[in-house]
Amino acid sequence: MKGVNHVNVPRGEHHSIGVAEKAIQDLSNMMRCMLADSNIPNIYWDFVVEHATLVNSMISPAICDKTKTIFEAVWDVIPNIDLVPPVGCFCARLMDNSARADWKLDPKNQSGVFLGFDHRRNIYGAQILVDKSIITAKHQISYDIELFPFQQRDNSND
Question: DSSP label at 77?
Answer without folding.
Answer: S
